[in-house]
Amino acid sequence: MEKIIVNRKIFVKVKVTDEFKKLFTQEMQNGINKLDAELSFLEQRAKKVITELTIKGSSQVSAVREQLEFEKQKREETKANFIEQIRVASTLENGKEVVRGELEGPIEVKIGDNWEEKIQREIVIEDGVVIEIR
């Protein structure tokens, strides 16, 4: 066998611009808003379920409360992460490249190929446009 097709990771980098910071902050804020809505819904739903269980005299009330706290905690942690990402994004220097994601793609490898050149690839995006493939 003289060649093989393998999958490799391709890093997607974004060149920091004012537009990137604005869109990224907006994306994180939308995530925060969604989490706030989920938290509100969870609390309303849990109150209803707890009231119903209490009326029935069920022993599951504490389990429902525990599950609610667990779900709330997960969302609060995600929300804190989004807030931290907004803070970090605001401090990024324009022109700097930051990793925004990762893809996988196939590549053909043949005997004699330079492994490092074949396997290390990046896509660089600026304001939504691919500006470089390395």
Distance between the termini: 28 Å
Helix count equals 3
Largest sheet: 4 strands, mixed
Order of helices and strands: EHHEHEE
Strand runs, count: 4
Helix content: 55-70%
Cα shape:
elongated
> Strands of the biggest beta sheet: in what spatial order?
2-1-3-4
Kindly give the count of domains: 2
> Nearest-angstrom radius of gyration?
23 Å
Rounded mean pLDDT is 92
Structural class: alpha+beta
Q: Give the low-pLDDT segments.
A: none
Estimated share of beta-strand residues? 25-35%
Describe this structure in words.
With 134 residues, the protein is of the alpha+beta class. It folds into two domains: 1-16 and 94-134, no CATH class; 18-92. It is 56% helix and 28% strand. The chain is built from three helices and four strands. The protein has helices at residues 18-56, 61-91, 115-119; strands spanning 3-15, 97-110, 121-126, 129-133. The chain has a four-stranded mixed sheet with strand order 2-1-3-4. Strand 3 (121-126) and strand 4 form a beta hairpin. The relative contact order is 0.26. The mean pLDDT is 92.
Keywords:
134 residues; alpha+beta; 2 domains; 4-stranded mixed sheet
Question: What's this entry about, in short?
Answer:
The chain is an alpha+beta fold and 134 residues long. The protein has helices at residues 18-56, 61-91, 115-119; strands spanning 3-15, 97-110, 121-126, 129-133. Helix content is 56%, strand content 28%.
